[in-house]
């Protein structure tokens, strides 16, 4: 039963992603999606917990607070990809989705095929990671969904602005980004979902 609920949650994620209106993300001088791969990644260094600082929220993420991704490299080279958080409030239990990701060959570890429900997969791209692996920007290959993540659940305003500026320079519509509450005092604050 629990497995079927996870499958249904993943299906809802996929369907909501398909139903979500496209982002007017292309910069005038760029062709195609704003979501392009950044520099090659040290995959082992990239693993671990990443807190969702901001995103372009879609149906299955809108109700979550304290969201985070947790990636674990498996012996077979696949990645255990967990999206976790608390639904509606910080006093709720941690729930979420568990997926398996496969690094696409020849991409410098920057493009992953994430299996939602067989046979459905999405391609998630790492567009940026800072040299110290503290901040990263990930996006769906078509640019419709974007995530700004950090190793620490709190990001200072100056760093957040730098990351927004980076997103804008990549060609993303930063007006669609919403900060994710990572502590109770952030709930309901301007700019937060």
Automatic annotation (TrEMBL):
InterPro entries: Calycin, Lipocalin_ApoD, Lipocalin_Blc-like_dom, Lipocalin_CS, Lipocln_cytosolic_FA-bd_dom. Residues 41-182 form the Lipocalin/cytosolic fatty-acid binding domain. Pfam families: Lipocalin_2. Its main location: membrane. Residues 1-21 form the signal peptide. One of its GO terms (cellular component) is cell outer membrane. SUPFAM superfamilies: Lipocalins. One of its GO terms (biological process) is response to stress. It is found in: Cell outer membrane. One of its GO terms (molecular function) is lipid binding. The keyword Lipoprotein applies. Keywords: Cell outer membrane, Lipid-binding, Lipoprotein, Membrane, Signal. PROSITE patterns: LIPOCALIN (PS00213), PROKAR_LIPOPROTEIN (PS51257). Gene3D superfamilies: 2.40.128.20. Belongs to the calycin superfamily. Lipocalin family. Involved in the storage or transport of lipids necessary for membrane maintenance under stressful conditions. Displays a binding preference for lysophospholipids. PANTHER family: APOLIPOPROTEIN D. Homodimer. This is Outer membrane lipoprotein Blc. It comes from Burkholderia sp. (strain CCGE1003).
């Amino acid at each position: 039963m629990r497995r079927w609920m996870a499958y249904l949650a993943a299906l809802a994620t996929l369907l909501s992603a398909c139903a979500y209106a496209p982002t007017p993300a292309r910069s005038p001088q760029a062709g195609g999606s704003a979501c392009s791969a950044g520099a090659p990644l040290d995959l082992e260094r990239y693993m671990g917990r990443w807190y969702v600082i901001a995103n372009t929220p879609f149906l299955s993420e809108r109700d979550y607070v304290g969201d985070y991704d947790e990636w674990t490299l498996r012996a077979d080279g696949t990645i255990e990809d967990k999206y976790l958080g608390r639904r509606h409030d910080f006093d709720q239990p941690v729930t979420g989705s568990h997926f398996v990701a496969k690094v696409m060959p020849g991409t410098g570890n920057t493009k992953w095929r994430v299996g939602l429900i067989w046979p459905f997969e999405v391609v998630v791209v790492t567009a940026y990671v800072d040299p110290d692996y503290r901040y990263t920007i990930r996006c769906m290959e078509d640019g419709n969904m974007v995530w700004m993540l950090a190793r620490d659940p709190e990001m200072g305003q100056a760093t957040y602005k730098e990351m927004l500026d980076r997103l804008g320079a990549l060609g993303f519509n930063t007006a669609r980004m919403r900060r994710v509450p990572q502590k109770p005092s952030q709930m309901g604050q301007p700019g937060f979902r």
